[in-house]
Amino acid sequence: MSSSNQKSYVPYHSPYDPCPPIGKKYYSTPPNLYMGFQPYNLPQYSPKEALQKGTLWPAFYDYYENPYERRR
Amino acid sequence: MPSTLPEEFYQWMEELQAVDFVLVELTLYLDTHPQDQSAVQQFNQFAKQRKQIKRAIESKYGPLQQYGNSYSGMPWNWSDGPWPWQV
Amino acid sequence: MWVYEKKLQYPVKVTSCNPTLAKYLIEQYGGADGELAAALRYLNQRYTIPDKVIGLLTDIGTEEFAHLEMIATMIYKLTKDATPEQLKAAGIADHYVNHDSALFYHNAAGVPFTASYIAAKGDPIADLYEDIAAEEKARATYQWIINMSDDPDLNDSLRFLREREIIHSQRFREAVEILKEERDRKIFF
Ligand SMILES: [Fe+2]
């Protein structure tokens, strides 16, 4: 889920760059970018789960964690 | 409010936070989908539920809102702590 | 008018006594893409926007104040019991010498809040696109703070706030569609 909303690219690395390359740079493309106008009657979380997730609709949920940490 | 809050207070609060969160989500949704009848129905149902939870919390822990949106105890107990950022 | 409720929108818990995190969080308190700027931006724009989207700006603007209170709570909890020595070690001595542990509307680099953070062009499309961008910038800021923080409970609250920016952006996108009057066409044909 989070991986499909996470994109990456590799910045150009010159032999004259002082630091070792970071490898991939990551950026988020959350579900709101693809939804368009929200349709009626999308499935919902229970109230407790909605609060915990930060949205009432699973279609918008986008868990985020530090992508650079995961790589190490 | 009593000076140290029992575990039960946090559970009640989370109950209210959950119901209120559904109401926030539906509010923003209905702002852009005013014709969605089942969402309006769900909204009104949760609005009723939040009233009941509010009443239950206030009977034990004092007013959640003021300016007359809640009843006061005697003496005036709106300004009794702890406040949300302290608990 | 506004009515205050003695309740956070989402529970704020902080596990570790790490005042350095407060230094990062202040970005969302008094920074350009922070919660104060967001609240003031939307509540100011609503006076010069078509009636159809005034409700949305009012409600998102109001929710932003609830987020501001959550950020304040995090900073309060991280700094209230810190000694001057601990604040110094955390890199917030420059804040301390001016404010003690009082909150102040400035960003993580100490730049005070300014009204120029609050865009208002008076053109509904320009303003709503500004709002969409503001939400995406706030979302990105939460990501960078989460990348800097290793406090699991704090990150849980920050993830909630990040998700809210996604929903706000969604609603502003829908508001643009409403003003384009695409929505009605879709329903009736
Ligand atoms: Fe927002």
TrEMBL record, chain A:
<dbReference type="Pfam" id="PF11007">
    <property type="entry name" value="CotJA"/>
</dbReference>
<dbReference type="InterPro" id="IPR020256">
    <property type="entry name" value="Spore_coat_CotJA"/>
</dbReference>
<protein>
    <submittedName>
        <fullName>Spore coat associated protein CotJA</fullName>
    </submittedName>
</protein>
UniProtKB/TrEMBL annotation, chain C:
<dbReference type="InterPro" id="IPR007760">
    <property type="entry name" value="Mn_catalase"/>
</dbReference>
<feature type="binding site">
    <location>
        <position position="59"/>
    </location>
    <ligand>
        <name>Ca(2+)</name>
    </ligand>
</feature>
<feature type="binding site">
    <location>
        <position position="35"/>
    </location>
    <ligand>
        <name>Mn(2+)</name>
    </ligand>
</feature>
<dbReference type="InterPro" id="IPR009078">
    <property type="entry name" value="Ferritin-like_SF"/>
</dbReference>
<keyword id="KW-0167">Capsid protein</keyword>
<comment type="similarity">
    <text>Belongs to the manganese catalase family.</text>
</comment>
<feature type="binding site">
    <location>
        <position position="168"/>
    </location>
    <ligand>
        <name>Mn(2+)</name>
    </ligand>
</feature>
<keyword id="KW-0106">Calcium</keyword>
<dbReference type="InterPro" id="IPR039377">
    <property type="entry name" value="Mn_catalase_dom"/>
</dbReference>
<feature type="binding site">
    <location>
        <position position="135"/>
    </location>
    <ligand>
        <name>Mn(2+)</name>
    </ligand>
</feature>
<keyword id="KW-0479">Metal-binding</keyword>
<dbReference type="InterPro" id="IPR012347">
    <property type="entry name" value="Ferritin-like"/>
</dbReference>
<feature type="binding site">
    <location>
        <position position="67"/>
    </location>
    <ligand>
        <name>Mn(2+)</name>
    </ligand>
</feature>
<keyword id="KW-0464">Manganese</keyword>
<dbReference type="GO" id="GO:0046872">
    <property type="term" value="F:metal ion binding"/>
</dbReference>
<dbReference type="Pfam" id="PF05067">
    <property type="entry name" value="Mn_catalase"/>
</dbReference>
<feature type="binding site">
    <location>
        <position position="64"/>
    </location>
    <ligand>
        <name>Mn(2+)</name>
    </ligand>
</feature>
<protein>
    <submittedName>
        <fullName>Spore coat protein CotJC</fullName>
    </submittedName>
</protein>
<keyword id="KW-0946">Virion</keyword>
